[in-house]
Design goal:
about 375 residues; Rossmann fold; 2 domains; 6-stranded parallel sheet; 16 helices
């Protein structure tokens, strides 16, 4: 490989995501590429709302502004007028797109392109998305024009190849890392008045939160002894609140929002973490829970078993009784909880952002050869 390789990340995800998820992946990746010998990196985001970029650690060609209602669409449109010229001025060797452009690539002539596919949810669960949603169309276009496609799990790679007909040689599997660490949550007060089960993230559609509500409601053991805390995902919608009320759970089910510190506290104090999703491209929350010695109970579908290995109690997410029984088994046995905690400590050693960056750098080097 020639020396002085320049990698550029575009603005897409940083326009609308303040923190978490995909933006965390690209920030952690860019930060590590920047410290690699013979590499330089910049994020071209004329305007952005992302808090990670605002914290520093990565060269950003742009200005941080507060996020407001519908600001993502407006910022993206404005950036679309400026970003192409700024990207060209960086003279990149590799452009790593942070999401899926519908239009042509912004890579200058002679610049290789990389795109990361996080899941095939839109293709496998189209009924959960609006008819006007064009994510799948944009994803296909981005994948077809890219020089290399990174998939965040072997399951996502298989789905991508099956659904889009992509050549396997064009793809590579690189697992994600995770960021929250045990030290964040030390010496903190209790946040809940009684033991609780923890759910993290968005709750709609294939995330299958309603199944968790139904399983919880069906168990006298769980209702009498544990609360259910849903972290993130916004306040309960009208439909969710009605469903919770119908099940008689309005005093037992709570929604919490906050930063990584609060999430860390909840992981540390929860009796168990429950992940009932029907489909995930990877699934970082189970690893985060393991990092805080929180027993993990999760679905046996898609990429989830690939990520958690033997360090979680698995269940069929379409079987309410199986979900209820899995939770009752874990919270009812200190031996099982201790075993899951021990296995979790071992499992998380397989995943780190350093490893993600190292394997991604190998892809960049291959494109330069």
């Amino acid at each position: 490989m020639k020396s002085g390789m320049k990698v550029v990340f575009d603005d897409q995800v940083f326009c609308w995501q303040e923190f978490g998820g995909i933006s965390r992946y690209f920030y952690e990746l860019a930060k590590r590429v920047a410290h690699e010998e013979n590499f330089s990196v910049s994020v071209v985001a004329p305007l952005y709302v992302n808090r990670y970029l605002a914290e520093g650690g990565v060269s950003v060609k742009g200005l941080h502004i507060p996020k407001a209602r519908n600001s993502g669409r407006i910022i993206s449109a404005l950036n679309g007028l400026v970003a192409p010229a700024l990207i060209r001025s960086e003279h990149p060797d590799v452009l790593h797109e942070t999401y899926y452009y519908r239009r042509r690539s912004l890579a200058p002539r002679g610049c290789a392109t990389v795109v990361t596919v996080f899941d095939m949810t839109h293709e496998k669960f189209p009924d959960y998305f609006l008819a006007r949603d064009r994510t799948s169309e944009a994803k296909r276009a981005a994948v077809m024009r890219a020089d290399r496609v990174i998939c965040i799990s072997a399951n996502t790679q298989r789905d991508l190849i099956d659904i889009f007909g992509v050549s396997p040689e064009k793809t590579a599997v690189i697992h994600l890392g995770f960021t929250l660490t045990e030290q964040v949550a030390t010496a903190v007060p209790l946040t809940e008045s009684r033991p609780f089960l923890l759910y993290v993230g968005p709750r709609g559609g294939y995330k299958n939160f309603n199944a968790l509500l139904n399983a919880y409601a069906a168990s006298q053991v769980l209702r009498n002894n544990f609360s259910l805390v849903a972290f993130g995902g916004g306040h309960f919608s009208v439909a969710e609140a009605e469903h919770i009320h119908t099940l008689g759970l309005q005093d037992s089910v709570k929604q919490r929002s906050g930063d990584d510190r609060l999430l860390s506290i909840l992981y540390r104090q929860a009796s168990a973490f429950v992940y009932p999703s029907l489909y995930e491209g990877f699934g970082i929350p189970p690893l985060e829970a393991m990092g805080f010695d929180c027993p993990v109970i999760c679905s046996n579908t898609s990429s989830i078993p690939e990520v958690v290995g033997d360090a979680a109690r698995l269940f069929d997410p379409e079987d309410i009784d199986a979900l209820r029984a899995a939770i009752e088994a874990v919270v009812g046995s200190s031996d099982l909880r201790d075993d899951l905690v021990r296995r979790g400590r071992e499992r998380i050693q397989h995943f780190s952002w350093d490893r993600t960056a190292k394997e991604t750098l190998d892809i960049y080097r291959e494109l330069r050869q």
